[in-house]
Amino acid sequence: MQFKNPEILYALVLLLIPIIIHLFQLRRFKKVDFTNVAFLKKASLQTRKSSEIKKWLVLLTRLLLFAAIIIAFAQPYTSKTRGQTKTENVIYLDNSFSMQAKGNQGELFKRAVQDVIANVPQDAVVSIFTNDAVFKNTTIDAVKNELLRLEYSASQLPYKAALLKSNLLLENNKNSLKNIVFISDFQDYDNSLNEVIDPSVNLHLVKLSPVNTANISVDSIAVSSANATNLELAVFLKNSGDLIDNLPVSLYNDNDLVAKTSVELDRSLSTLFSIPSNTAFKGQIVIDDGALQFDNILYFNLNDIKKINVLVINQADDSFLKRIYTKDEFNYKAFEINQLDYNLISDQQLIILNELDQIPNSLATSLKAFARQGGSILVVPAEAIHTRSYNDLLIDFNIALDSFNLNEKRITEINFSHPLYANGVFEKQISNFQYPKVKGHYRVNTNKASSALKFENGATFLSQGKNLYLFASPLSGDNSNFVNSPLIVPSLYNIGKYSLKLPRLYYTIGRNNSFDVATQLQQDDILTLVKNEISIIPRQQQYNNKVVIKTEESPEVAGIYSINSKDQVLSHVSFNYQRTESDLTYKDVSNSDQVLVNNSVSAVFDAIKSDTKMNALWKWFVIFALLLLIIEMLILKYFK
To answer: Among candidates 319, 304, 378, which has minimal Cα distance to 348?
Structure first.
């Protein structure tokens, strides 16, 4: 029991006054003489004893009467708040895409918003946050319209991050009752809900469940084959429900239907579409599925082919380079070292030093400036070089060449995680193939540089330091058969392709994405990503002949965006939502420690109201005082 006005209880000390008066009565009895009182002696003793009992009963009832009145004025009450004088409520509304699933009363998230508005008192101070919005210390009445306008978010907070964010929204007040309410479907994507929870905080979990966990999604697409006229696109679908006999799959170019097919879908399936190559294509793969909507469309695009500028500085045969850097994808130029026009360097994306005996200081200076502007360099050393001139260039890239060893070595180790080989070059990791070999090689000292290929003794054959690539031996002539190996094509081709990272078929929102736009901007010009009314200025870095664009959480809306320089459209890039939420599997939160689990919003807020409800007891003490007054009157009247 607690009191609203506990200071009034000091008045209980005044109850000592009637006790003192009763114990120390000052009234003196007078003697009255009677002629003969012998026969009254017994009756007199009985009356005196009854009088003493009556006085004690009257004193007790009066003490209880005054005590009840004093306690009533102190306003006693009972509550589950353990003495806290304030209540803080923080609500996490999960608006991730999985909450698009339909429950008994419609989409889970939309129903949850309605329940929060209906069950939280309109004037109660509360903090509400979603995956991408925060409403701190507000009232439902003030943010009602904003809550109703909330949309689904492409990003989903991990449970641990949501807990940390909830605690930040709570005040650091030890005398407040703290409640955190998580409203989610609790997809099984991390285990951070099992983190230790502050025991001073009541964590309520509202688990919302869909009526159907079946879902079909467009998972991904890839180019399966290509020729001069057509590209074959492989479309990969996933199904988490029963077998689908007839699922329509449509291909659009912008808003025009290009092709449509029907597939029988079990758990996963791929289907093919053919589109013209060497033409711009703003594509959409569309399916019709009544469950989650965000994964029914996958956007992709093909831009007009932008050729990559490759400049080769020769002192050796470059025929193997010409076969790889073909005219359909590269602008290939080759010069002898003594015929090089240095003005061409700034216009290139890749410069190859093909077995130069010596790198002149002027060329090394130009190449360093070229690399600082984002250009890539490939160095193939000659068999006899001026080592110091090479190292004057290489030292800026954390690489150095040492002595030349005339020991035959095989190239046996492939770094499959290296960017040159990580993206679809190998269907599986291989450990036994026809190893290329060299008769002699330089020892390469690397510092913070990575190795893409290694010799059988672990020494580096192809290394990368920043945006410079270095082979440890000459590639032409009798020294090596590497130019006849299957590794030569992906190695050199990808070095060329990565020197200008043109936009891929599509990117995924929420990941670290980076691509290049071949353009030259004025000093204060910027590139923007534009889609209908959406205009975004992404993080970008300007170089002489390209702009590097990096995105992660922005843009937030999937679609095909134009890359604009002022009003000029340079190219297009596509973004799609992550498909991790397409799999409708959920955590079992019923066994979670230190939490209170419910399956409805109304049940949680009824429990919170019950915890914070005060049961006033002063009326009972007033009734008790009246009863004591009646008892005292009855004692005085009828007790003899």
So the answer is: 378
Q: 241-275: per-residue pLDDT in tens?
A: 777 778 899 999 988 999 998 888 777 788 899 98
Helix (H, G, I), strand (E, B) or coil at 13: helix
In three-state secondary structure terms, 562 is strand
Number of domains in the chain: 5
Residues 44 and 179 in one domain: no
pLDDT tens by residue, 596-615:
777 788 888 777 776 555 56
Does the pLDDT at position 26 exceed 50? no
pLDDT of residue 54: 72
Mean per-residue pLDDT over the chain, rounded:
84
Q: Are residues 170 and 45 in the same domain?
A: no
369 occurs within a structural domain: yes
* 279 and 391 share one domain: no
Q: Report yes or no on 314 lying in a domain.
A: no
- Identify whether 308 is part of a domain: no
Decide if 471 contacts 438 (C-beta within 8 A): no
Q: Which two tokens stand for residue 145?
A: 């319209």
Q: Which amino acid is at 262?
A: S
Q: Which two tokens stand for residue 469?
A: 């690539």
Residue 47 corresponds to which amino acid? T
Pairing of strands 450-455, 460-465: antiparallel
Average pLDDT over residues 215-244: 86
User: Pseudo-torsion of CA 387, 388, 393, 396, nearest 10°?
Assistant: 110
The Cα–Cα gap between 189 and 238 comes to 18
pLDDT band for position 474 (50/70/90)?
very high
Say what the pLDDT of residue 79 is: 60
Q: Do 456 and 557 reside in the same domain of the chain? A: no
- pLDDT score at 191: 61
Q: How far apart are CA 632 and CA 389, in angstroms?
A: 116
Q: Which domain holds residue 270?
A: 216-302
Residue 139 to residue 121: CA distance in whole angstroms: 8
Domain stops at, among 455, 486, 517: 486
Report how far apart, in Å, the C-alpha atoms of 522 and of each of 343, 374, 514, 547, 570 are: 20, 17, 21, 11, 15
Q: What is the pLDDT of residue 602?
A: 81
Q: Where are the alpha helices (DSSP H) in 120-236?
A: 140-148, 159-169
**Pick from 401, 407, 396, 410: nearest CA to 368:** 396
Cα atoms in the Cβ-side hemisphere of radius 13 Å centred on 238: 16
Q: Is residue 415 part of a domain?
A: yes
pLDDT digits (tens, 9 = 90+) for 427-458: 555 555 678 899 999 999 887 788 999 998 88
Distance CA 425, CA 489 (A): 10
DSSP annotation of 302 reads E
Supply the DSSP symbol for 454: E
